[in-house]
Task: inverse folding
């Protein structure tokens, strides 16, 4: 039995003052040197969460285990009547091998299960219905603006409900171990600024979305000692993980209004403005350059279909070799590196005859691959579905400057082109090490109890399906840049020798 | 007395104390830097300033084809404008709040401003979007998705609102606080309102014959005959840019440095040259390569800055990559008069 209480308090005070319009006297570096009145920003944020929690653990005969927790929080960021929220959890496991007789060679069997809820409060000041004020905007006048988000309705904390089942098995006197887990997490009650018609005087209404997102996945871990001899042992461990994110429920009012946002469909989608294409998928050119559609299309999903890792340790007499391979299958992201290499003319493949002719001889020789519209037009609904199409296409035959074409085809950095949405499939040799344990005879000579020398290397090899000029393993997975490989620097290759001496 | 388990005693104390400890929470979560109440004049400044484009907004010149930008294809340069929105209508809620905070003495002036902004915002939005909601707007609880009214009805309401604005400005005694352009002078605001009424009616001129219920001609002539209109440059609601932060010309070198890589277009330069219009010398600087011996290409005669031939524009309708590669020094760029250093 365990119980506790906590008070969490955070405070963040930030001030920024800066000169405006330059400095009045060269070399006089002070806020007083500002030509125009100084600009300032001030921010003071605080938050407190009071919590009470308890945990009870039960076990019986080393066979049955049960944990129950309960927690209640009071958060300052929620309205007084929504402030208190409760979330419990239960987890249990049974070692079945203690109860039921297992066949020969099966040493251990355990099943486990858990159910958890957790809740997240709102952001600091999120429920403040306040004006935005700016000072000295025009001829010393201050301005105020009414908020564009309607705040004041009831807002519950965001909720996540997870359950997991799993099993662990050991075979052949623990030479083979197997662990399997399946989990299912439903996120709901997202606190959102749900869009409304701007003709209401607001852009959005703060509310809880009815959207629910489901994340389910399996994790498998297999460990084995395939070879165990006096001189040679080989240990191996394989980890496999698969995650899938789908819409469990769609909010008819506030979920993103796109045709691919449907119950059961993936929610980790990436959508961009694709090239305008004919029914066969050829890029349509206007004038001499490709044109983009004015509606977004789904071009991929972020999460890989499978992540895997394989670790091996082999020991032969005094030598130990270990290495880890891991990788990912599937998942997409926008590679800013690839797009910008082309956009800036630094891509290796842009050094070609078209470019040579243009730069050296002043001849344009490039013709964009695709079609052009000879006559007719197309009508679409807001989702881009074709209502009426009278276009007649012909093969594009307009000669264009290679530079102008490529800097449009691989456009500005914040404007992903479809061909730079890359599959993240890769594998890498993440670590490799080889160590040699010096024999005792040598150790005694140099008066140490043990000694080893070895070689270690990280990131020695990378193979990627589409990512040729950036590391798909880095960036693009989290945070603001979700789905964006953001000109990341390559993972460092590290190689080193080491000597260990024990006294 | 029996000894109480210390953990339980802490738990019990906490149970009693903690929920009671949330009394300061509302204070903790109130942003000291953001007010719940403001003054009418601060809101009025927001409203009036909203009528000018932001000072960092310089792409109008590309849309009007007066300038060419060679760095990359600008969407506006090629008329790729995208969709409009109702965002201007959100301003009206600020105008409503102006009335809420207004004192008895200021109420007439701010009511005039309210109707003026209402007319202006609906006129602008309807010009961009055609049919738009009017009767159900700004009632978020009742109509989260307001129904559309026909453009004809919207224009009727716009004219009514502007007429009311004129009425209230006429009644106003004293000044309208927070006005950055006309010193809060209600007479000037009457003139602005009536000129806007004329502008709206002029936008309707093609409907003058077939829509008699709008009384377009009658209203127009009545306003011209009876109501105050602009009489000089002092009262024409012009924006006067200055060297102060936030009040600079959109093309000010401080904010738009890349202005130096734009050149004027034949669309504006050729007609100015054709009609001998001296504004050419105010808008543009002469081509550096033609007027400065250092840059003068071989076999070309040096020209004086006041020579009409020292001003040439790029062709915005030509293929982009062709114009993009031309030497900017041979073309007229924005004059320093237009681009304060």
Result:
């Amino acid at each position: 039995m365990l119980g506790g209480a906590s008070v969490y308090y955070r405070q963040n005070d930030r001030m920024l003052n800066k000169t405006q319009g330059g400095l009045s006297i060269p070399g006089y570096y002070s806020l007083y040197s500002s030509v125009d009145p100084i600009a300032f920003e001030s921010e003071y944020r605080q938050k407190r969460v009071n919590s009470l929690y308890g945990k009870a653990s039960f076990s019986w005969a080393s066979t049955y285990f049960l944990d129950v927790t309960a927690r209640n929080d009071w958060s300052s960021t929620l309205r007084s009547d929504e402030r208190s929220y409760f979330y419990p959890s239960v987890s249990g496991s049974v070692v079945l091998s203690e109860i039921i007789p297992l066949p020969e060679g099966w040493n251990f069997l355990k099943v486990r299960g858990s159910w958890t809820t957790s809740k997240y409060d709102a952001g600091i000041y999120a429920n403040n219905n306040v004006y935005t004020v700016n000072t000295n905007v025009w001829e010393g006048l201050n301005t105020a603006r009414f908020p564009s988000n309607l705040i004041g309705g009831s807002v519950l904390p965001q909720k996540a409900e997870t359950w997991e089942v799993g099993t662990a098995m050991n075979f052949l006197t623990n030479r083979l171990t197997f662990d399997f887990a399946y989990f299912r997490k439903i996120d709901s009650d997202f606190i959102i600024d749900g869009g409304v018609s701007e003709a209401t005087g607001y852009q959005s209404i703060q509310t809880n979305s009815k959207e629910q997102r489901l994340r389910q996945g399996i994790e498998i871990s297999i460990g084995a000692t395939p070879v165990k001899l006096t001189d040679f042992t080989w240990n191996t461990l394989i980890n496999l993980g698969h995650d899938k994110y789908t819409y469990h429920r769609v909010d008819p009012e506030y979920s993103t209004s796109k045709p691919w946002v449907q119950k059961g469909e993936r929610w980790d989608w990436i959508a961009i403005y694709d090239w305008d294409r004919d029914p066969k998928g050829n890029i349509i050119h206007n004038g001499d350059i490709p044109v983009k559609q004015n509606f977004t299309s789904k071009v991929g999903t972020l999460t890989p279909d499978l992540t895997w890792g394989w670790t091996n340790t082999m020991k032969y007499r005094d030598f130990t070799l270990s290495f880890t391979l891991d990788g990912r299958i599937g998942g997409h992201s926008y590679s800013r590196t690839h797009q910008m290499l082309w956009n800036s003319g630094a891509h290796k493949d842009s050094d070609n005859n078209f470019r040579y002719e243009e730069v050296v001889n002043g001849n344009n020789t490039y013709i964009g691959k695709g079609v052009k519209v000879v006559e007719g037009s197309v009508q679409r609904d807001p989702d881009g579905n074709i209502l009426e199409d009278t276009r007649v296409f012909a093969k594009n035959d307009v000669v264009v400057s290679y530079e102008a074409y490529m800097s449009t085809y691989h456009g500005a950095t914040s404007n992903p082109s479809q061909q730079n949405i890359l599959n993240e499939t890769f594998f890498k040799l993440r670590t490799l090490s080889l160590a040699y344990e010096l024999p005792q005879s040598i150790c005694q000579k140099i008066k140490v109890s043990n000694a080893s020398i070895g070689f270690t290397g990280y990131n020695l090899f990378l193979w990627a399906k589409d990512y040729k000029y950036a590391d798909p393993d880095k960036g693009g997975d989290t945070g603001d840049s979700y789905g964006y490989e953001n000109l990341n620097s390559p993972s460092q290759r590290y190689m080193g020798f080491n000597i260990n001496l024990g006294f | 007395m029996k000894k109480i388990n210390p953990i339980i005693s802490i738990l019990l104390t906490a149970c009693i104390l903690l929920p009671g400890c949330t009394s300061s929470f509302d204070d903790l979560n109130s942003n000291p830097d953001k007010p719940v109440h403001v003054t009418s004049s601060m809101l009025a400044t927001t409203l009036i300033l909203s009528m000018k484009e932001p000072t960092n907004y310089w792409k109008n010149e590309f849309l009007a084809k007066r300038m060419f930008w060679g760095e990359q294809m600008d969407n506006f340069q090629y008329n790729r404008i995208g969709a409009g929105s109702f965002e201007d209508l959100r301003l009206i809620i600020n105008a409503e709040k102006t009335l809420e905070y207004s004192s008895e003495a200021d109420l007439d002036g701010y009511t005039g401003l309210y109707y003026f902004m209402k007319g202006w915002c609906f006129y602008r939005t309807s010009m961009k979007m055609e049919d738009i909601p009017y009767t159900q707007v700004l009632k978020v609880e009742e109509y989260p998705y307001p129904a559309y009214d026909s453009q004809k009805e919207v224009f009727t309401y716009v004219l009514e609102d502007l007429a009311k604005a004129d009425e209230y400005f006429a009644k106003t005694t004293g000044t309208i606080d927070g006005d950055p352009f006309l010193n809060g002078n209600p007479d000037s605001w009457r003139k602005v309102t009536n000129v806007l009424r004329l502008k709206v009616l002029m936008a309707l001129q093609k409907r003058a014959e077939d829509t008699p219920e709008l009384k377009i001609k009658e209203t127009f002539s009545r306003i011209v005959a009876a109501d105050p209109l602009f009489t000089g440059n002092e009262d024409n609601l012009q924006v006067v840019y200055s060297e102060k932060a936030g009040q600079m010309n959109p093309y000010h070198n401080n904010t738009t440095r890349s202005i130096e890589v734009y050149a004027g277009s034949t669309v504006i330069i050729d007609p100015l040259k054709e009609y001998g219009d001296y504004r050419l010398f105010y808008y543009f600087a002469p081509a550096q390569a033609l007027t400065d011996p250092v840059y003068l290409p071989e076999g070309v005669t040096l020209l004086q800055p006041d020579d009409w031939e020292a001003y040439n524009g790029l062709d915005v309708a030509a293929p982009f990559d062709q114009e993009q590669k031309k030497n900017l020094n041979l073309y007229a760029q924005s004059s320093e008069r237009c681009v304060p250093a």
Observations:
- Chain A has a mean pLDDT of 91.
- The longest strand of chain A covers residues 34-60.
